[in-house]
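How a chain folds remains the central question behind the approach discussed here. In the encoding step, the backbone of a single protein was reduced to a row of integers, each denoting a local shape. We regard such an encoding as a compact summary of how the chain folds. The sequence in question and its structure tokens are set out directly beneath this paragraph:

___
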Amino acid sequence: MDLVPHFQIVSASRASCDQRWNFGEPASPFSRLYYVTRGEAVVRFGGTLIRLAPGTVSVIPAHLHTEPHCPRRMDQYWV
């Protein structure tokens, strides 16, 4: 039995987000990991609201319809 989870990094980058990062996204087949370095935003899915803030790492599970919202500016690394 293999107890080590298998994962593959498909894409990674640094991004600066602003008010244009306010849209509904279709369910992604990939999980996402955000590390925020400046600013803040939120991601809503279902009844859950995740706050993206400096110094935090957040994981958004695959196959969820999300609604990201960035009121001003946010700098992040994402995988």
